[in-house]
Amino acid sequence: MDTDYIIVGGGIVGLSVAWGLLRRGLTVTVLDGDDGSFRASRGNFGLVWVQSKGMKQPRYAEWSQHSAAIWAAFADELGNNTGQTVPLEQKGGYDLHFSEETLEATVAQYEVLKGKLGGNYPYEVLGHNALRKEEPNIGPTVVGAILHHQDGHANPLKLLTALAADVRRLGGRVLTGKTVTEVTKPDAFRVTCADGTAVTSGKVVLSAGLGATQLGPSMGFKAPIRPQRGQVLITEKLPKLINRPSLIARQVDEGGIQIGATNEEVGLDDRVTQPGLSGLAAEAIAAYPALARAQLVRSWGALRVLSPDGLPIYQQSAEMPGAYLVTCHSGITLAAAHARVLPDWLEGTSAAPNLEVFSEDRFAVS
Amino acid sequence: MKTVSPFLELEDAPRVEVSFDGRTLSLPTGANLAASMLAAGIDVFRNTPVSGAPRAPFCMMGACFECLVDIDGITRQACMVEVTEGMLITPPHSAEVRHEPS
Amino acid sequence: MSRRDLVIIGAGPAGMAAAAQAADLGLSVTVLDEQPHAGGQIYRDVDRIAPIRGGILGPDFTHGTTLTAAMRHDAIVHLTGAVVWAIEDQFRISYTRGGRGAQIEADRILLATGALERPMPLPGWTLPGVMTAGAGQILLKQSGILARNAVLVGSGPLLYLIAAQMVRAGTPPVAMVETQSRGDVMRAAPHMGGALRGWRYLAKGLKMLAEITRARVPRYTDATGIAIEGDGKAEAVRFTSKGRSHRIACDTVFLHHGVVPNTQAARSLEVSHRWDAAQHCFVPLADEWGQTDKDGLFIAGDGAGIGGAKAAECAGKLAALEVAHQAGRLPLAERDRFAAAPRAKLESELAARPFLDAAYPPCAEALLPDDKTLICRCEEVTAGDIRGYAKLGCIGPNQTKAFGRAGMGPCQGRYCGLSVTVLLADATGQTADETGYYRIRPPIKPVTLGELAAMDDNTLDAAE
Ligand SMILES: Cc1cc2nc3c(=O)[nH]c(=O)nc-3n(C[C@H](O)[C@H](O)[C@H](O)COP(=O)(O)OP(=O)(O)OC[C@H]3O[C@@H](n4cnc5c(N)ncnc54)[C@H](O)[C@@H]3O)c2cc1C
Ligand SMILES: Cc1cc2nc3c(=O)[nH]c(=O)nc-3n(C[C@H](O)[C@H](O)[C@H](O)COP(=O)(O)OP(=O)(O)OC[C@H]3O[C@@H](n4cnc5c(N)ncnc54)[C@H](O)[C@@H]3O)c2cc1C
Ligand code: FES
After folding, report:
1. CATH says C368-435 is which class?
2. Which stretches in chain A have pLDDT values below 50?
3. Which ipTM score applies to this complex?
4. N or C: at which end does chain A have fewer Cβ atoms within 10 angstroms?
């Protein structure tokens, strides 16, 4: 056997898991696709986010909270190891509202969730004036916001870079430009790539983002995931304009204002469209009118990796024991949990988290 | 102090006043803004938002974005703009117009 | 929103010639160019400038007035100062003009967006006072502004042209620091046959050299170890030539080592490109009429591969003929009959290229700069950073972009893209084609959020 684990897919999810396994002294080989692959890890919004997660499944809310709580230590460790800080700010985040009705309805839902979480859901409602004190540039049509204190944001690209560097430093073997075409288990696992490379291992983690739809079924997974396009905008670098992030806009550590994101069911099309860009720009200006003068310098479309209920999937294959499907929509938020907690589940230690509700059993066979 | 420009102007056209970073410049009306700022002795247009390094026009054809300045509050490429009377020009996103004697 | 038979982006020789040809054949044509006047790079603002500085700039410049004259045609709308920032499928073009966003639809599109100067990352190239030689020429051409103390650095015919124009204007450069060597010229010799067919160019080249020599401009060839020095602005150029090191004081440095296609618009439409080894750059794939692998999308002029102004004019005409044919306005036989003359001219124009490409190769140390040299001016990323990302497994420019931000700034990779491809290919052992290029997306030129938002359907509805 070449290695303890093969990780198929070197995005945020695969690298977080690889890093966690390496830290436990296991040997890991990561196989990642080519320069043009769909990579949500490169196109996301960078929120380390808790509010609104798991409204129907409190365990997901808890899992997100857990990850958010250990994110800073995770980022510090990566920063110390690589000498490159992973910018993270956890001063809370907003859900901005343009109408009293939506604000009240959301608060009602949060109250229910808060009850199920035993009260651990620290949020407050800010009316327009209170919000303006926090965010002097907020627009007049924003009636208020929910400020959730467990929310924050990170630089997801620096996270990706730091993980790529530290996985190597920890002795991980990372092969890029390798598209896995087949996974078999004659005895040990044998993973074969399009260019003929073959690697054998004791266990396999399938964390190939949307690539799991092709490989998953051959490994005994349902892998019922689909792409959902999000268009994202970023402006020129600006002086401080926004203090805390929201789902509408955030100011990144380099200074640009990131604005997102559309939710579009358009298959594997990751292009941007003028109507998409215009709609996002209009919403951002409604929230922060000063943005009307800002120059848009870049935009992109990225494909979310979505399960039918939007929750992560953590599943061991019944057909191929030792093969695991690990995929989620909120890979930035969950990076810390994937790096520091998920390895216990993969290794079956006594500290393994209970991830029952995230198994594929929840999806009916169609 | 009058700055000696490293550039020589062949043409003479009617001039108008504009302000750059608190200084008053007299530039040929209708001329290319970046070119006439250079001729007026402006050697640094901005400092980068990354390291603060000084920058000035590089391509003069709208491709490099080194000539960025704020004109009446909007960041524009000076090499793509014509001089008009009374333009209020600053380096990009300078919080306020600074008045420097030099 | 209006719909036109043909929308042309770029009013240089390719775009202007195409517009006139298409309009003559009865097509409705709109030309969009971000410049305030027709002309493109070579004939910039030619109508106003030809009478003032035609003498300095020469007949190759004043020739442009024939093209601008032919643009004044009832079927042609020329929108000046129109910055195109998005082109979407079949075909919706978004642009900004006078601070407002607008759109136009087209059955067919011709991209005639021309060339950019090849990025020339050398130590100190970001200092104020360092410009491209083309920029120096634009200052002279458009504004009548001349650098008093300029050193020209690099190689290629345009470098001599600009030097000669500076001489004619009475402000010769302080020195020419040339990176090509005798060996390059020897290697180019086998291509002489082709060049002789383009003899006019060579004769012109010799004439320019004579002008430069007569003005006693010192020329240093085979220059290596080039660095621009200065505290906050360019003060001198340091280099070694023929075993001796030099330091030449100056206020201005003009860099040039060739021009390369401006592929931003074509890339944003996912046109396939291939690496052109002779010209050291990517060129879009297009057939003999300039039709790309995207239906209805044409490219002509230097944006399709460097051929120069006269070639651009011919290619523009050819594209217009095929557009008219596809639009059902020109039978096949007629198309071919009309095409014969511009095609023959195009071939003779292109004949000199292999010689020029071989005689004036790009400056080697600017293709693979040392680790400390900045290659991404906007985000201040060095060549060493890119090599480091290659060690982290980055095999393509989109990965280095995510890791290190090269290509993320306002120029959108125009002045670092080729450097990143070449550096990565060198580090990984892949070819440039395998390495690839940035994924270019709208906006291909920045646009304010306010302009974008004003085009939002919901906002528009609400306003009505
Ligand atoms: C617009 C948008 C905004 C988002 N915002 C946030 C946010 O604010 N906060 C948050 O937490 N999350 C956010 N996300 C989600 C987050 O980005 C994803 O959950 C996360 O990036 C998924 O990572 P991944 O590694 O699973 O997938 P990817 O990044 O897609 O990586 C998959 C990798 O697998 C490789 N691969 C695929 N197939 C194969 C194969 N056959 N062989 C080998 N390799 C293969 C690919 O090359 C790729 O590198 C957002 C996503 C989008 C699209
Ligand atoms: C700075 C420079 C100087 C040059 N000088 C000479 C010279 O003196 N002699 C010579 O023989 N050759 C010169 N060249 C080479 C030149 O490329 C060709 O001679 C010729 O101009 C090519 O013609 P074209 O029609 O392909 O493109 P161009 O003449 O380059 O025209 C392209 C036009 O497209 C417009 N454009 C590009 N993108 C957009 C957009 N997004 N929105 C709106 N408009 C856009 C530009 O404003 C430009 O006017 C020069 C090149 C450069 C870059
Ligand atoms: S000088 Fe390059 S964009 Fe203006």
Report:
1. mainly alpha
2. none
3. 0.94
4. C
In short, whether B76's Cβ falls inside 6 Å of ligand 3 is no
* Element (DSSP H or E) covering residue A47: strand A47-48
Nearest to B32 among C131, C142, C445 (CB): C142
pLDDT recorded at residue C399: 93
**A contact chains, 3+ CB pairs < 8 A:** B, C
pTM of the shown model = 0.94
Structural tokens at position C54? 């035609």
CB neighbour list of residue B84: distance below 8 Å, 6 or more residues apart = B16, B18, B29, B30
Average pLDDT of the segment spanning B67-94: 94
User: Right CATH number for B15-90 from 3.40.350.10, 3.30.70.100, 3.20.20.70, 3.10.20.30?
Assistant: 3.10.20.30
Q: What is the pLDDT of residue C196?
A: 57
The CATH number of the domain covering residues in C119-257 = 3.50.50.60
> Which residue numbers in chain C have pLDDT < 70?
192-201, 458-464
pLDDT tens for B35-49 read 999 999 999 999 999
Selected from 3.30.360.10, 3.30.9.10, 2.60.120.10, 3.40.1280.10, the CATH number assigned to the domain covering A226-306 reads: 3.30.9.10
- Which CATH code fits C3-116+260-330? 3.50.50.60
Give Cβ neighbours of residue C367 (< 8 Å, ≥ 6 apart): C280, C419, C422
pLDDT tens sequence across C294-335 = 999 999 999 999 999 999 999 999 999 999 999 999 999 999
Select the residue of B73, B74, B93 nearest A238 (Cβ to Cβ): B93
Say if C382 is an interface residue toward chain B (CB within 8 Å). Answer: no
Do the domains at C3-116+260-330 and C119-257 have one common CATH topology? yes
CB-based contacts of A303, cutoff 8 Å, min separation 6:
A38, A40, A43, A210, A227, A228, A229, A230, A268, A270
So what's the pLDDT on residue C6? 98
* Closest Cα in chain A to B77: A295
Fold of A3-54+157-224+309-363: FAD/NAD(P)-binding domain (3.50.50)
Query: Is the link from the previous residue into C261 a cis peptide, with omega within 30 of 0?
Result: no
pLDDT on residue A365: 61
Distance C115 CA to ligand 3 centre (A): 14
